[in-house]
Fold N-acetyltransferase domain-containing protein.
Amino acid sequence: MTQTIRPATPDDMPRLVELLMLDTQERHAEDEILWKMADDAPAQIEKALTFALTAEQQPFRQFWHVAEDGAQITGVIHAMVLPVPPIYAGPFGDPGLILPDSFVVTDAPSGTLEGLLAAAEDALHEAGARITLASYVAGEAWRTAFEASGYEPLTLYLSRSDLGDQGMPVSVRQATEDDIPGIVERSAENRQILFDIDPFWEIHPEADPRFSAWMTRSLTLRDRDMMVLGASEDLQGYIIAQPASRLHFPPAHDVTGTGVIDDYYHPELANPAALDRGSENSNALLRAAEAAFANRGMGAAFVVCPAGWMSKIELLEAAGYETAMVWSIKR
């Protein structure tokens, strides 16, 4: 029988749970702390699939496609339309994103992965996505397929699973409301560097007030630590240690032990090509975030870093971080 690629249906769920458990085990084998499996992983997968395939009201558009060889499903791919963060302009609209909970069995017919990728891209384009992002963790087959299809690395997610016990650096302190203007000012520098690295991160005209409002609200959230270096009137840098979200971790993983660092900047990192201003203060902020995670009982840190920000990558790798996931872009 000829292989077919089609949208998934609720009747496919038992087989999809099997495939996505194999997918989960591959990530777990890469790093059992970062990609910790939930105790009820199959149930969590089934719950997520049930919602995705049956709920009429969903927070974003998502697509599941399967490859079928005869009567056997040999692969699955998951994609979504990704809302643009409010501080970015998103001139090309909401991009499409192919998520890491996609899987093809090793003995699937040749071209299965490529057929699934094409189906996901077609669905995203029909939904209005003019740019497509793709993410992968484990499996050279996915990296090779994305590269062959024209994807290039956009964002690296670097992780460390040994946060140590070095404690909180004395130069770093918890942020207060008085620090918000300084954080916003430094964030504007950070955003400009992002845009200079890749115009994908075009800055929204209202980025400063929007970011200020979010930082003010973040101060009230007890699940994160907002830390700064320097006096409020001359703030030197900031870092936010927050809990992991489902955007980066498929439902079969237990994220309670993982923290994420996205908002992180110090002028030592202003040159994306080299650490020519030193790294003492940037390292102090990073150690502070790690200490905050450790104090909350977390065992892994996940740092978001543009693939073109070589100085930040150098700093992170020197601190023991390794690339755990890659988001690539196809324009």
